[in-house]
């Protein structure tokens, strides 16, 4: 059984290589004159931000051309997360000139609370599963409850709930919380951060018990694996946070790869193409006629696929329809 699981991961990676060769032939339609005008207007900083030549990005002098997502842009973390790093880091002011083909729109999908959903599923954390399966906003609910307990209304912010989960999944604690808040110009004392994190642990004890269990297992056996048996060999030099993060983030990476392959198989209509994906986000070009219905169909298929993979939890996918890659250029959002 273990051998079959290892072979499955090998086959999955082979299929992903083939898929990326297909995505590499797709690309955004770009008005090169406008884009070059924006670059020149921003001077040296603009050229450094876009970094066209250094990153092997093709920008034609024609009025309309393609920017091909080449294999040189592909990056993968130790946990298996994949993305196109240079395009994904592009400043938003440039993204408005990256568009689907004429007569098409861009459908954008993002998996909500991806890793928190997975760790709640693995740990069987009752309160986490209750929030997720009821369709409530996980981050907002957590932030609201902690702000009431600490009596600090500043904490009643969705961003803060997301930060707490991110730190917990990465094996951090109050020191990481102080640092993250400082980086976001949000001042918080270490003592208060300690109280906050203790409340968070009390809210989701199953998550922290699960993390401790997989760390002990990894130390005992010298390895740990994701849901789909992607293996990490564990040595004395590996931190506990690396172990716990690998199981959750690695399982998320495998699930997203499975999802990409499934979605690509659903794109059977003319002009339907995956243009870009980055970590948990996916950008698909579809004809404008019937696009809203198609967005609903693909969103439902993604949620169903992920939820059936894990069984005990409901996954949620945010979807929007846009004229360009710019985040503010949203036509419809669900």
Overall description:
The protein is of the alpha+beta class and 334 residues long. The strands form four sheets. The protein has a five-stranded antiparallel sheet, covered by helices on one side. A three-stranded antiparallel sheet has the order 2-1-5. A two-stranded antiparallel ribbon has the order 3-4. Strand 3 and strand 4 form a beta hairpin. Helix 10 crosses helix 11. The radius of gyration is 21 Å and the shape is globular.
Which key terms come to mind for this protein?
five-stranded antiparallel β-sheet, single chain, three-stranded antiparallel β-sheet, 334 residues, 14 helices, alpha+beta, 54% helix
The major pleated sheet works out as: 5 strands, antiparallel
Element order: H for helix, E for strand: HEHHEEEHHEEHHHHHHHEEHEEHEE
Span between termini? 40 Å
Read across the widest sheet, the strand sequence of neighbours is 9-10-6-11-12
Low-confidence stretches: 46-66
- Please work out how many helical segments DSSP would assign: 14
Please compute the radius of gyration using only Cα atoms: 21 Å
Please report the total strand number as a whole number. Answer: 12
**Mean of all residue-level pLDDT scores:** 83
Helix/strand-derived class? alpha+beta
Oligomer: single chain
From the spread of the alpha carbons, the general shape counts as globular
* Percentage beta strand: 15-25%
């Amino acid at each position: 059984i273990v051998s079959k699981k290892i072979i499955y991961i090998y086959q999955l990676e082979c299929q992903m290589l083939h898929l990326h060769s297909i995505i590499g032939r797709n690309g955004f339609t770009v008005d090169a004159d406008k884009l070059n005008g924006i670059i020149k207007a921003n001077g040296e900083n603009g050229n450094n931000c876009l970094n066209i030549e250094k990153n092997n990005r093709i920008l034609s002098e024609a009025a309309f051309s393609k920017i091909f997502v080449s294999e040189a842009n592909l990056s993968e973390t130790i946990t298996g997360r994949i993305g196109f790093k240079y395009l994904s880091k592009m400043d938003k002011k440039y993204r408005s000139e990256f568009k689907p083909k004429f007569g098409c729109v861009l459908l954008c999908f993002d998996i909500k609370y991806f890793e928190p959903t997975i760790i709640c599923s693995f740990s069987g954390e009752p309160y986490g599963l209750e929030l997720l399966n009821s369709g409530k906003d996980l981050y907002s609910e957590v932030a609201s409850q902690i702000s009431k307990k600490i009596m600090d209304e500043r904490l009643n912010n969705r961003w803060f709930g997301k930060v707490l989960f991110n730190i917990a999944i990465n094996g951090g604690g109050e020191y990481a919380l102080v640092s993250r808040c400082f980086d976001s110009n949000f001042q918080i004392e270490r003592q208060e951060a300690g109280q906050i994190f203790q409340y968070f642990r009390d809210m989701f004890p199953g998550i922290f018990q699960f993390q401790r269990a997989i760390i002990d297992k990894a130390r005992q056996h010298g390895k740990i694996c994701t849901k789909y048996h992607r293996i990490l060999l564990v040595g004395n030099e590996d931190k506990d946070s690396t172990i716990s993060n690998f199981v959750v983030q690695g399982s998320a990476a495998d699930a997203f790869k499975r999802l990409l392959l499934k979605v690509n198989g659903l794109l059977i209509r003319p002009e339907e193409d995956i243009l870009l994906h980055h970590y948990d986000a996916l950008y698909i070009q579809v004809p404008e006629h019937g696009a809203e219905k198609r967005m609903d169909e693909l969103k439902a298929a993604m949620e169903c696929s992920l939820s059936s993979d894990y069984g005990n939890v409901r996954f949620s996918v945010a979807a929007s329809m846009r004229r360009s890659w710019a985040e503010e250029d949203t036509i419809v959002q669900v």
